[in-house]
Structure formats: structure tokens, C-alpha cells
Specification:
This protein has 321 residues and is α+β, with helices and mostly antiparallel strands. Helix content is 38%, strand content 21%. The strands form three sheets. The chain has a six-stranded antiparallel beta sheet, sandwiched between helices. Strands 1-2-3 form a three-stranded antiparallel beta sheet. Strands 4-6-5 form a three-stranded antiparallel beta sheet, covered by helices on one side. A hairpin with a 2-residue loop joins strand 5 and strand 6. Helix 1 crosses helix 3 and helix 8 runs antiparallel to helix 9. The longest helix has 18 residues. About 7% of the residues have low confidence.
Length: 321
């Protein structure tokens, strides 16, 4: 089954399932342009009089279908996401036209300038190096169409977003191996572990306590640290969402350089984080090649930030590229 055929089948399946609960309901499939001019198919469910509804992306479901998942199972999950989403959503979309009611929810992020040049023609933004600072409303994603209705300047929008972003999403810098340790620990433990701290039965052999697992992970991380050929740190924000914007925060890079008494390279891992590498342990050409390969093979096309490295110079107190 082709992707187009799959989408059509899912559309009718979701609509049939929705009509089991609602009389007047319809499903809509749209093509949404995301970051980096990436176009993705989405599906939404609408009831009569409904102004806002979750937007659900279909690409990953198609991959699941190709692995054997049924259309009915996919349809029921989409309807469940819709049902739960509408329960949680209490914000009146009409309030978007009133700046005073949304100003506390406006933030900013960094995106690739060249990849988004078409969208940026009609989107309030500021250049930052060869990237762009753009603004979004945290409730429903990017709602730039409302900016003109707010009747505010780009500078006021910028000040508002900076204040909210720096306050709500402070920077966080950790060693790469410590981040890996957190990820691994998070994968083998869960919030539902019992009071004795035992690892979930489905993902463990024997009765290892969380402390046992932490110690095993620490030992492996220590080995990784000893074998590492370079010091690598991850810079993001506390939510780890759109954390690459932390390189624009005042004093963050300057303080890191002062603390380590070193210039450093900035690897644009994704829009969500960057990697800091001390000194000059690799050539720029090698790192650029690494960034390009990782972006092509590992990073979702909507999350790519840049295809080359940057360098922070202590004496200049600025990023060069």
C-alpha cells in the first residue's frame, strides 16, 4: 500500500471510529509545512462548533503499518489522542487575537535561516549569525499569523519572548557521558517502579534495585570518560526542547569559556541542543563532515539546525563561523 493509499484508509477508519461517539464529525487530512520547509501529512478530527483540535502526524504510523500494525489499531490510537487532547485543551483560540492574554506564552527558538528563507519572508524574525530567531506560542505551536493583529512591533515581540524564554527555560550544561547516563537510566527505570525500587519486570533479568543499576551505569560511564579522546558537553535548556537557543543567552558561552579557560567549538546537534567541544581537538573540516553525516542519517529533517560548526573565541567574546 502506498503512503497516499494508507492516508486515505486511515482517514475513513478514523472517521468511522469517531462516529461511534459523535454524530456530526469529520476528519481532515492536510499537508503542514514544518521547520526547514519539511512538509508532513496530518490528520485532524472536527466536531460541529469546535474551534481547536489536535493535529496528528501520520508518517510514523505509516512506518508502523509497514511493520504489521493494523489500520484499525492505528485509527483507534489517533481517536484516543484526539479525545485526550481535547480534554486537556482549555484555552480559547479566540484569545490569540488579544496580545495581553498570550504575551506570557510567547517564546523564541533558533532555526536554520537558509532552509526557512521562504517562510521567513512572512514571519517576524531576527538574524543570528547564519540562523534566525523566530517566535512561537507554547499552547498550539507557531501562530505567527496573529502577530499583525496584535498591533505590536517586532522589538516588543522580541523583548516579550526573551523575557519569557530566559525565565522559563534556563540553560543547562552537562558532560556528554552524564547525559547518556541519564538517558540509559530513564530507559530501564520507570515512575511506576514499586516502593522497593525494583526495575520493571518486562525489561530486567533478576531483581536489580535502582541503586544497583545506577552503579552499573556509573561504572560504564567512567569507562567511557577514561576512553574519550575529547571533552564534550551538551548545552540545552531545562526542558530540553528548542534548547539550542541557549547560545543566544547572555553570558552562557562566556562563562563556559572562562570556567574551562579555553576557546571551544559549538556543534549544532539539533534545534534542541548543541555540543560544546573544548580546544582544537579536531579540524574544522572533520567536524563539518561529521555534522553533515549526522544530520543526514540521525537527525529528523525538521530538527536540523545547521550543517557546519561554530567556534567561540574568548578574546573576542563572540561566535565565529
Amino acid at each position: 500500500m502506498t503512503y497516499e493509499q494508507f492516508i486515505e484508509q486511515v482517514k475513513w477508519e478514523v472517521e468511522d471510529i469517531a462516529r461511534e461517539s459523535f454524530d456530526d464529525v469529520r476528519t481532515v487530512v492536510r499537508t503542514v509545512t514544518k521547520n526547514n520547509n519539511v512538509r508532513r501529512k496530518t490528520i485532524s478530527i472536527f466536531k460541529e462548533g469546535q474551534l481547536a483540535t489536535p493535529t496528528i502526524y501520520l508518517r510514523d504510523y505509516y512506518l508502523d503499518y509497514k511493520k504489521g500494525r493494523s489500520i484499525e489499531n492505528i485509527g483507534r490510537e489517533i481517536f484516543m489522542i484526539y479525545s485526550e487532547g481535547t480534554k486537556r485543551f482549555t484555552f480559547d483560540v479566540n484569545q490569540f487575537s488579544d496580545f495581553s492574554k498570550v504575551k506570557d506564552k510567547i517564546y523564541y527558538k533558533l532555526v536554520n535561516y537558509k532552509m526557512n528563507r521562504q517562510a521567513l519572508k512572512t514571519m517576524p524574525h531576527f538574524k543570528f549569525l547564519d540562523m534566525a530567531i523566530v517566535f512561537f506560542v507554547s499552547i498550539m505551536g507557531n501562530e505567527n499569523a496573529y502577530v499583525e493583529k496584535w498591533g505590536i512591533s517586532k522589538e516588543e515581540l522580541r523583548r516579550t519572548a526573551i523575557n519569557n524564554t530566559w525565565k522559563e527555560y534556563p540553560p543547562e550544561i552537562k558532560k556528554m557521558e552524564d547525559i547518556i547516563s541519564e538517558i540509559v537510566l530513564g530507559q530501564v527505570t520507570s515512575e511506576d517502579d514499586d516502593e522497593n525500587g525494583l526495575i520493571s519486570e518486562e525489561i530486567s533479568y533478576g531483581e536489580f534495585s535502582i541503586d544497583n543499576v545506577r552503579q552499573m551505569i556509573k561504572e560504564e560511564v567512567d569507562k567511557m570518560r577514561a576512553q574519550a579522546e575529547m571533552d564534550m558537553y551538551v548545552l540545552t535548556n531545562t526542558s530540553r526542547n528548542f534548547g539550542a537557543a541557549c547560545i543566544t543567552y547572555p553570558g552562557v558561552l562566556k562563562e563556559f569559556a572562562r570556567e574551562h579557560n579555553s576557546d571551544f567549538y559549538i556543534i549544532p546537534s539539533s534545534v534542541h541542543e548543541v555540543i560544546l567541544i573544548l580546544g582544537e581537538q579536531m579540524s574544522v573540516e572533520e567536524m563539518n563532515l561529521m555534522v553533515e553525516e549526522v544530520n543526514e542519517r540521525e537527525v529528523d529533517s525538521t530538527d536540523v539546525l545547521s550543517n557546519h560548526v561554530y567556534q567561540y573565541k574568548r578574546e573576542l567574546e563572540e561566535i565565529i563561523y
